UniProtKB/TrEMBL annotation:
One of its GO terms (cellular component) is EMC complex. It is a single-pass membrane protein. Belongs to the EMC7 family. Residues 48-158 form the ER membrane protein complex subunit 7 beta-sandwich domain. Residues 191-230 are annotated as: Disordered. The keyword Signal applies. It holds the Pfam family EMC7_beta-sandw. It is found in: Membrane. Residues 1-25 form the signal peptide. The chain crosses the membrane at residues 151-170. This is ER membrane protein complex subunit 7 beta-sandwich domain-containing protein. It comes from Lymnaea stagnalis. Its main location: membrane.
Length: 230
């Protein structure tokens, strides 16, 4: 009984394997039927390193299609079907601006700048592609150093230095001014010092709540007592 069951399992596995291989072959044939194109361009760099091409890669859509840079800076990426792709140059010592390449089903290629904020805005560039160095990458943040300006613009230092400067500079400005200006400023100071005394708010409130009539009655009662004595 066990031998027929094992034979059935073997035949079933063989059938499934042939079916999967047949379907994968059909998919490969369908993929091969699609037309493929190539993306060409050249890289310009100011580096004096003669081996910079060995460290450079051409990435199409983040590495879905890969290309290498020749010694003269040119490159060709083969086997790219029709569609829209972002082409980048990856180099550890240089930065390049990415470009977008649109390939039609008939093989017509158009290159334009990458604009993620406004995808509908089209600014075409020359094809074959030209990549020029934009700068060098910065992998490390520079360490902050102590500077004199950091000490001078400290709020605690400003609160101490500014009043001291005013105390030292203002008297010299007063002495340097002419006699009319000194007299005018002296009159202003005297007017501020001789202003009438303002009433005490606490006294006003106590008089208001205690009642001012009792005080008036006390003031009126004094002449009556003196008249009786007379």
């Amino acid at each position: 009984m066990e031998e027929p069951a094992q034979l059935v399992q073997f035949l079933l596995c063989l059938f499934l394997f042939n079916w999967s291989s047949f379907s994968s072959a059909n998919e490969i044939d369908d993929y091969n039927d699609k037309p493929e194109f190539k993306i060409e361009g050249k890289v310009y760099i100011s580096s004096k390193d003669k081996e910079w091409t060995l460290n450079s890669r051409v990435l199409v859509d983040g590495g879905e299609y890969l290309g290498f840079v020749r010694t003269d800076g040119s490159f060709v990426v083969h086997g790219v079907p029709s569609g829209s792709y972002i082409v980048e140059i990856a180099n550890p010592n240089a930065l390049f601006e990415p470009l977008r390449v649109d390939i039609t089903s008939k093989g017509k290629i158009r290159a334009r700048r990458v604009n993620f904020l406004q995808p509908t805005l089209v600014k075409t560039v020359n094809y074959p592609l030209e990549f020029r160095e934009r700068g060098q990458p910065n992998y490390f943040q520079k360490r902050e150093q102590l500077r004199l300006t950091d000490f001078l613009f400290n709020p605690m230092v400003l609160t101490m230095i500014v009043p001291l400067l005013l105390i030292m500079v203002l008297p010299k400005l007063m002495n340097a001014a002419d006699a009319d200006t000194q007299k005018e400023m002296q009159n202003q100071m005297n007017a501020l010092n001789n202003r009438p005394n303002m009433p005490d708010p606490a006294e006003l409130l106590s008089n208001f709540f205690s009642g001012g009539s009792s005080a008036k009655k006390a003031v009126k009662a004094k002449p009556t007592t003196t008249s009786k004595r007379k």
